[in-house]
Design a protein that fits this description.
With about 300 residues, this protein is α/β, with parallel strands linked by helices. The chain is built from 10 helices and 13 strands. It starts with a strand and ends with a helix. Bound molecules: adenosine-5'-triphosphate.
Length: about 300
């Protein structure tokens, strides 16, 4: 299925939490919402799953190329909320049976699905323990099972990696990959850049309620790149002061007497700068350092 969000705005009493956001996500795709605390990710997610309504703008759902629907069919989506809400005094299996019942699953189908997911998440032998006895990470895994047990077409996960150790983060990544291969539409919010960079087909970077960049990793890189970090190695010793004074250069760090990291504005890099460097001394090496998503993200939200 496909979800289309058009110019959505959400105001709370004193704050515009979501400010004119548009995005599209389709089946077989993982879309990751990224942004600092308070960027508006959860507010957007809550509107996408129909828990709250936009003040303006539209959210439409398309099932198998049929006409647009403005209501999300509850059987079609699974939602992992930011505030996890399973009953702590009930056993893990009771919690899952309860959720399956809420989702309208027939008893037998629910039983089979619960059994399969518990085995998949290595929790079969914990099934009769009360939730409160489980570690934070295992509780998170049960929450994920509760989100996925009815095989939803649209899966919306608010911070699915929170509380998980690196091994379990990898495990959840594998599960998300399987959902993608099954053709599910997967939308998640996250703070774990390195993980998101590896698996998301589409990134939506938010700050202060607005989208500041979106698209593939390459698209987002291009949209966020405000400055270039260049590496230069001279044949002989050079005074870093001279480099700092070149036009377009905003910072210069000495790595050795001949090697420097130069920061310059995005448009000033390239041939012009190389020429200036060659006027200072013979250049052995001149290359651009690739910034990772985390660096670009920090640069964008702090500027
Ligand atoms: N129910 C609410 N009532 C009033 N203000 C709210 C409500 N929910 C969110 N906000 C405000 O809206 C803004 C966006 O919050 P939101 O929780 O959507 O951000 P977020 O990107 O999910 O943050 P985090 O990464 O911390 O979960 C914040 O300023 C927040 O304080």
């Amino acid at each position: 299925m496909r979800i289309e969000v058009q110019q959505v705005v959400k105001d709370y009493a004193t704050v515009r939490a979501v400010d004119g956001v548009s995005l599209t996500s389709t089946g077989g795709e993982i879309l990751a919402l990224l942004g600092p605390n308070g960027a508006g990710k959860s507010s957007l997610v809550r509107m996408m799953v129909g828990l709250t309504r936009p003040d303006s703008g539209t959210i439409q759902y398309f099932y198998n190329d049929q006409a647009a629907a403005s209501q999300l069919d509850t059987a079609a989506f699974g939602y992992l909320p930011e505030d996890r809400g399973l009953y702590q005094d009930r056993t893990l299996i009771d919690n899952l049976r309860y959720i399956a019942n809420l989702r309208g699953m027939p008893k037998q189908e629910a039983g089979q699905s619960i059994e399969q997911w518990l085995a998949r998440f290595f929790l079969t032998d914990r099934a009769k323990e009360p939730m409160r006895q489980l570690s934070k990470g295992n509780q998170q895994k049960v929450q994920l099972i509760a989100t996925l047990l009815h095989s939803p077409q649209l899966v919306v996960l608010d911070e699915p990696f929170s509380g998980l150790d690196p091994v379990n983060q990898e495990f959840v990544l594998t599960v998300l990959e399987e959902l993608r291969q099954r053709g599910c539409t997967v939308i998640l919010s996250a703070h774990q850049m390195a993980l998101v960079e590896r698996m998301a087909d589409k990134l939506v970077l938010m700050n202060k309620g607005q989208v500041i960049a979106q698209g593939s990793l390459a698209d987002v890189r291009e949209q966020l790149q405000q400055k270039s970090v260049l590496f230069v190695e001279f044949a002989d010793t050079v005074d870093s002061e001279q480099l700092s004074q070149l036009s377009g250069v905003t910072a210069c760090k000495s790595l050795s007497a001949r090697e420097f990291e130069i920061v310059c504005s995005e448009h000033s890099q390239g041939a012009g700068l190389l020429e200036q460097l060659q006027n200072i001394g013979a250049v052995n090496q001149f290359s651009r350092q690739q910034q990772n998503l985390h660096e670009l993200y920090l640069q964008a939200v702090q500027s």
